[in-house]
Amino acid sequence: MKKILFVFALVLSGQLLDAQNEIVPKKKSQKAFAKLDFLSLDLPKDDPNMGFTGIHYNLMLNDWSYAGLGIYGAVSGNKGGFFTLGVNAGIKKYVSDVFYMDAGFHFGGGGGAGAPDGGGAFILPHFNLGYNFKHFSINSGWSYVDFFDGGNIKGHQLNLGLEIPLGYSFSNYEASENEFNFEMLERSSWNVNSKRTSLMLHLNNLKIEGDDTNINVQKFNRATIRLAGFELATYFSKNWFSFLKVDGAFDGIKAGYMDVFLGGGYHFSFNKNRTNILAKFGVGAGGGGGVDTKGGFLMYPDISLEQKLFKNTFLSINKGFVMSPDSHFYTSSFGVGLKYYIDRNGIISEEKSFSKGKFKGIEVITKQDLYFNAKRDGNPTENLHQISLQINLNLNKNIYVTGQTSFANFGNAGAYAEGIVGLGTRTNPLLKDKVIFFGQILGGAAGGGDISTGEGFIVKPSAGLSYKLNNTLSFRTAAGFVKAKGGNLSNPFVNFGIKYHLSFLKMN
Questions:
Q1: Biggest CA-to-CA distance, the chain
Q2: Alpha-carbon distance 30 to 35, whole Å?
């Protein structure tokens, strides 16, 4: 009898373990790649060619097709501050183990720096041949650019690209806010090494420096450009990391200045990991708002001091420089930020011990905005259209933090752009779990394209709904109002787009 009870207990415990494993959401994998590319655009009249460089992130939809997003910026010539945002789609087909063909298409919007960008809308198809070196690949070939909405930038050119595989693990969005103890996760597919990521929202100040002959000193009298933005970093070892940093001006000079940096750094912790020192160096593009950065290529050396406030949240203070290589544009940088560290998608770590994990929802939204009768500083009032990227991170099931960047693509305002952050709230799924209603309020920097935003600070409340199409995609639409402080922009707007949603495992 005892033997029978013992066997029954073993069988029952095994069934319970299997049931627990079924409760933990399954880990899925998405193949993806990051791409850096460069092309030289032929500008009309006596302007020199504009060096145009892009940062893209593409998801592999199957073995041969991809889609994603990309941002471009000027890095040579005389159009510093020229930026665009767009969507990618393409076919990538291998003809041998290492050689492949890549035919793709990019549609976007943007402009700036007095360039003949019209409304900002442009197309950029390409056809490339590439070679895969296993850990990275290079490609090159033909491309064509056409700013077709009243612009005068058009032509064929050679393009060069570098691609790096950069996939990720995820689970369905419905798993968000579900929590599991370490023992249950240890018996699941999440029993792998964790990855570390950080997200910082910051305010930065660029004090224009240089001697009295410097054109920016003469124009702005050593003014301080006040910026708001974010920095996303991912760690590839305990101490080394890469980062993407984006800022936009909201005070100090006429609206329109923006910079984007890509770089790396070293992280040193002490005081029982409550205090961090980070040394960073980035390169990128910047300009706008009347600032003269020549071609737009900028460097960003920086050192930051971080102090833990609670859990994974740190207060950051940074000091550095933002400058062109020849110091034509030269500023002293000082800023403060709030940084949040995340250990994700794995339960194994050499630096930390975890007790539990919670799935957190994230949404990536690509949409088209329409501002009705957007007020201008000089040109006649007309509608403004812009392409927009928004990213939401759930704090819980009903509240999220969000960041958004937008670039004009129709409406004779090609240089207009926004970089804003805020909070949102949403309902639980309704109508057979298909529909979610939401409301949000965002604020931050905006300017350029003759749109009347004063020194650049805007507030943008809105409300809308999303309709679930499948496990990862929803249709989304909203309406709201945008108001500029110190400017005449005060208009209703509507938008519509596609929302890509998933969840990741956050360890505690």
A1: 98
A2: 16
pLDDT reading at 14 higher than 90? no
CATH number listed for the domain at residues 357-507: 2.40.160.20
Q: Please state the pTM of the whole predicted model.
A: 0.91
CA 430 to CA 465: how far, in whole Å? Answer: 11
Residue 436 above 80 pLDDT?
yes
Helix (H, G, I), strand (E, B) or coil at 399: strand
Q: What residue type is assigned to position 80 of the chain?
A: G
- Please choose, from the candidates 91, 155, 102, 90, the residue with its C-alpha nearest in 3D space to the C-alpha of residue 127: 102
Contact residues for 137 (Cβ-Cβ < 8 A; gap 6+) = 100, 130, 131, 162, 163
- Range 195-284+293-344 classified under CATH 1.10.3210.10: no
Q: Is the dihedral of CA 269, 271, 273, 275 positive or negative?
A: negative
CA distances from 35 to 75, 127, 170, 233, 387 (A): 17, 15, 21, 17, 20
Encoding tokens for residue 63? 């073995």
At 17 the three-state DSSP class reads helix
Report pLDDT digits (tens) over 162-204: 999 999 999 999 999 999 999 999 999 999 999 999 999 999 9
In this prediction, residue 13 has a pLDDT band, given cuts at 50, 70 and 90, of very low
**What is the domain partition of the chain in residue ranges?**
30-165, 195-284+293-344, 357-507
The residue whose two tokens read 């937008």 is 406
pLDDT tens for each residue of 303-329: 999 999 988 999 999 999 999 999 999
CA distance 156 to 7: 75
Joined tokens for residue 157: 């050119």
